[in-house]
Amino acid sequence: QVQLVESGGGFVQPGGSLRLSCAASGSIFSIYTMGWYRQGPGKERELVATITSVSATNYKDSVKGRFTISRDNAKDTVYLQMNSLKPEDTAVYYCKIRTRVGDYWGQGTQVTVSS
After folding, report:
1. Contact at 8 Å (CB) between 80 and 20?
2. What's the whole-number average pLDDT of the chain?
């Protein structure tokens, strides 16, 4: 059994910052890629950022330069630092990990950007 616990979502004004965390626990043998996805109102879930086991990163074009993904392998945790937030960043954010035995998703955390 693998569990992902997300935290750090909330309400913020445009231009503000939030930091999301996602901690994995349970029967984790090896974590390969860790990532963040989001699903806005009336939209499909989309990739925001990923980070590999050797810390190679990939970002959605619209968040490049504003969001930073990082991971702490000792804690099996992935982070998403979000700066210069815009109303269009409003969504439920989900973390996902790819392991040797399968993919796992977090429960999601709401991020709302509004004045």
Report:
1. yes
2. 96
d(CA 84, CA 65): 9
d(CA 115, CA 99): 39
Residue with tokens 């974590």: 31
Instruction: Tell me if 82 sits within 8 A of 111, measured CB to CB.
Output: yes
pLDDT tens per residue, range 85-108? 999 999 999 999 999 889 999 999
Residue whose C-alpha is closest to residue 35's, from 50, 13, 17, 56: 50
CA angle at 97 for the pair 58 and 8, rounded to the nearest 5°: 80
Residue 17 CA to residue 98 CA, distance in Å, equals 27
Separation between Cα atoms, residue 79 and residue 82, nearest integer Å: 10
Predicted confidence (pLDDT) per residue in 7-24, tens digit: 999 999 999 999 999 999
